[in-house]
Write a structure and sequence with these properties.
The complex is a heterodimer of chains A (356) and B (401).
Chain A: H1 21-25, E1 30-37, E2 40-45, E3 50-56, E4 61-63, H2 64-78, E5 81-84, E6 90-94, H3 100-109, E7 125-126, H4 140-150, H5 153-156, E8 166-169, E9 183-188, H6 197-203, H7 206-211, E10 218-221, E11 226-229, H8 239-243, E12 256-261, E13 276-283, H9 290-306, H10 313-320, H11 322-329
Parallel strand pairs in A: 7-8, 8-9
Antiparallel strand pairs in A: 1-2, 2-3, 3-6, 5-6, 9-12, 10-11, 12-13
Chain B: H1 8-12, H2 21-29, H3 33-48, E1 68-69, E2 87-90, E3 97-99, H4 100-113, E4 117-120, E5 127-130, H5 136-146, E6 162-163, H6 177-187, H7 189-193, E7 203-206, H8 215-218, E8 221-228, E9 232-233, H9 235-243, H10 248-253, E10 261-263, E11 268-270, H11 280-284, E12 289-290, E13 294-301, E14 315-321, H12 328-344, H13 351-358, H14 360-367, H15 389-394
Parallel strand pairs in B: 6-7, 7-8
Antiparallel strand pairs in B: 1-2, 2-5, 4-5, 8-13, 9-12, 10-11, 13-14
Helix pairs in contact in B: 2-3, 4-5
Classes of the chains: A alpha+beta (356), B alpha+beta (401).
Chain lengths: 356, 401
């Protein structure tokens, strides 16, 4: 069969054709919403129309056959409309109230995980990992699955002081929103990468490699038509590897996972915050990374126990102080916790008022 | 063809209640050799604790410089099905709304030309098709584009803009996030498909300060909805919250960052001149409180992940801008911003890093935005500052200083 005529530069399809009729009718006229249970909310329009949203977890990697199954359900209950959230949840949009409970029943029967709305965990934003990335220092999907199996109830039922946003990045490039998440995992390298001098001169641009280094650790090595890396300056960020495959930083024995905490993106109550280092390193322990999962659970449950209602993880920590955070969680404080990078001077304590 | 590989480690990740990505890969593997070999290679990664994808590789469709990420296995002899396993980024519709008809159409095309594996969605927002070979790309693109779909951005280019659910299903949208993002994406088709920038440039549009798309943290240009004027209060609904057990003093009044609210058990009062529009009270009392009626957005610039010299959150540059079709003011501003960056940045320098290196003043002058206290948390603390001759003519005139 002949191929159809290609149409470059048409841009995305117009969103309007994908909006359920009830949404189109009430576009921009929503009055309020209510969370009915951990997986259901209703949005009510000025004129009284109501649209129900049922939220379901997704592993983000979806086979086409799974998408077809989801479509069948959306056909049956939602007139053939659905959406996905910015955290990769599936949202079924129901215009007919009488279909909400039957939809939820079918989803439960088919083993879908309903939840993620309100003061609890939502889905985990994450990166490709070993599944599909050349630079990955861990597997993101594996970590997410292991972590969410353990924290499952915090998605489906249990309530937390506020929402808690989890994220996983498989290297410091952080294609996921790790740097501003409540609790997040980021895979790190811990060793100065070896330079393959034979290949470097042939496949890499030396000035680009030198310029890529944030700590000025890379110098030219004219004799070898290559570069050398200063062991005292390299912080293993891997940016040189991004521009030059001859500096292969991947190291199965010493790549691992760090945990960062306390970030957020909303402006509610306090300004958006970066996540800060809680635990610098765990060895990669596929398939289930039990120590990482236990550490995340400990932080989450310590927060759940001590935070005030509506406080995000970062707000709780700032109220009690970081020294108290380490005490309550029992996390060991190490040299890695003390910043020695770009913004270090802002992080040193300048007061004699602190807790033990 | 299923069952080619034993995957004891990955099988562990089919246990437990959370939906399993391994089950998804296995499902696709029943129909695709590519998906099956990706499963085999992934098991090998889990065994040996490292990834086996080659570094980059330039592939694409005719006339485009982006939208497809070249991906090749490091172990093509062992896993021939993933010798080529390219990623195709399909530009998502605003707000990630779909009809089942459209999704099925994409699934049918993808089963024909690729592995049957997807990411719904990728981190920047695209609908990502995971794993195809080089020969299939043109046919895949013809099938997709003839049905109304186009590729998203990759490389040193405008990246696929994205937005929150906005006025489609949210009462807090201060402007039409879906429409702005559709319009900006159409405006920048050339910059999106043909990388000619110093580095990537991301635009995200959030309808309010709750920022469900993480615009403040993940976009070079963050458009964040806000308003001017008084928060609208429905006192009868306030009473209902109180009657239903909400501790308004503890949960709302005491948590207000500017302490501009009070409640005497009957009436909720807001000193709107002191409110910083953080959204806490509105988000917690959705029936009782609504943003003011003069709506628009705050424009912030420069956020990014840690590479190279540390993560940045976006900085406020324009405190308030009207965001209304045809978006001329916003589009003009973005053109100036990108123009300045394109003229001045080094290769692989994001706009936030450029501003940090050159200073905020040259940037603000280039885009025609005056200095305003809303742009900073505090003024500088050390007495080192530049003066330009014109400052003495325009600001520090002898009659005033």
């Amino acid at each position: 069969m002949a191929l159809p005529q290609r149409k470059p530069d048409i841009g995305p399809p117009h969103y309007e054709q994908f909006l359920p009729p009830l949404i189109k009718k009430n576009y921009g006229k929503w009055k309020y919403h209510e969370i009915l249970d951990p997986g259901t909310m209703v949005h009510v329009a000025e004129g009284g129309d109501a649209i129900y949203t049922v939220r379901v977890a997704s592993p983000r990697i979806l086979a086409t056959d799974t998408i077809r199954e989801i479509c069948e359900i959306a056909d049956k209950y939602c007139g053939g409309y659905l959406r996905f959230t910015s955290r990769n949840n599936i949202e079924f949009l129901v215009s007919d109230k009488s279909k909400v409970e039957p939809l939820k029943k079918e989803l439960k029967d088919k083993k879908y995980t309903i939840g993620g709305i309100g003061s609890r965990l939502s889905n985990v934003v994450h990166t490709q990992g070993w599944v599909h990335c050349h630079g990955a220092a861990t597997d993101a999907s594996g970590l997410v699955k292991a972590m969410m199996d353990e924290l499952y109830e915090y998605f489906t039922t249990k309530e937390l002081p506020n929402k808690v946003r989890l994220a996983v990045a498989c290297c410091v490039n952080m294609c996921g929103a790790v740097h501003c998440s409540d609790i997040a995992l980021v895979a790190v390298h811990t060793k100065v990468p070896p330079v393959d001098h034979e290949r470097l001169g042939k496949i890499c641009e030396i000035p680009t490699v030198i310029a890529s280094c944030p700590t000025s650790a890379i110098r030219p090595d004219p004799a070898k038509k290559s570069v050398t890396i200063n062991y005292d300056k390299c912080m293993y960020c891997g940016n040189c590897f991004t521009v030059c495959p001859a500096i292969d930083i991947k190291d199965p024995e010493r790549d691992g996972v760090a945990i960062v905490v306390g970030g957020k993106v909303g402006s509610l109550r306090s300004d958006p915050k970066f996540s800060k280092l809680a635990i610098p390193f765990f060895y990669n322990e596929p398939p289930r990374w039990p120590k990482v999962v236990a550490a995340v659970k400990n932080i989450l449950e310590t927060y759940a126990k001590h935070a005030k209602k509506h406080e995000r993880v970062g707000e709780w920590i700032e109220r009690i102080g970081w020294e108290k955070f380490f005490k309550l969680t029992g996390i060991e404080f190490t040299f890695q916790h003390i910043d020695d990078f770009t913004f270090a001077r802002e992080t040193f304590r300048t007061s004699a008022a602190f807790k033990y | 063809m299923s069952g080619k590989y034993k995957t004891p480690l990955l099988d562990e990740l089919e246990k437990g209640p959370w939906p399993s990505f391994v089950t998804e890969i296995k499902k696709a593997a029943k129909k695709s050799d590519m998906a099956e070999d990706s499963l085999g290679q992934l098991e090998y990664s889990f065994e040996t604790k490292r990834g086996y994808w080659k570094h980059g590789g330039i592939v694409g469709v005719l006339g485009y410089g982006g939208g497809v990420i070249g991906r090749y296995s490091d172990l093509p002899d062992k896993f021939p099905g993933v010798k080529f396993f390219h990623t195709v980024r399909v530009n998502q519709p605003s707000g990630w709304f779909y009809t089942t008809k459209a999704l099925r159409e994409i699934c049918d095309i993808w089963d024909k030309y690729g592995s049957g594996l997807t990411n719904i969605h990728g981190s920047t927002g695209d609908l990502v098709l995971l794993g195809t070979n080089t020969e299939s790309l043109e046919a895949l693109f013809a099938e997709l584009s003839s049905r109304g779909w186009d590729l998203g951005g990759s490389g040193s280019a405008m990246r696929t803009p994205s937005c929150c659910v906005g006025p489609a299903r949210c009462e807090w949208a201060n402007y039409d996030t879906l429409d702005v993002i559709y319009n900006l994406t159409q405006e920048y088709q050339d910059e999106l498909h043909r990388p000619a920038f110093p580095y990537k440039f991301k635009i995200k549009a959030a309808g309010c300060a709750c920022d469900c798309v993480a615009a403040i943290a993940r976009a070079d240009l963050s458009i964040i909805g806000t308003w001017k004027g008084n928060i609208q209060i429905d006192q009868a609904e306030v009473k209902k919250y109180a009657d239903s057990g909400m501790n308004i003093q503890a949960e709302i009044i005491d948590m207000c960052p500017t302490k501009c609210m009070s409640y005497d058990g009957k009436t909720l009062r807001i000193d709107n001149a002191e409110c910083n529009r953080c959204m806490h009270c509105i988000a917690k009392m959705t029936k009782a409180l609504k943003p003011g009626t003069e709506r628009g957005a705050t424009i912030c610039i420069g956020s990014k992940a840690p590479i190279v010299v540390g993560s940045l959150l976006s900085w406020v540059i324009v405190p308030f801008i009207k965001v209304e079709p045809p978006y001329t003011e916003l589009k003009d501003l973005i053109r100036k911003i990108i123009g300045y960056w394109d003229d001045n940045a080094k290769a692989r320098e994001r706009i936030g890093e450029l501003i940090e290196a050159k200073g905020m003043r040259p940037f603000l002058e280039a885009i025609g935005v005056p200095p305003q206290p809303q742009q900073v948390k505090m003024p500088r603390k050390d007495p080192f500052f530049f003066f330009k001759e014109e400052d003495f003519e325009q600001v520090y005139t002898k009659d005033k200083y």
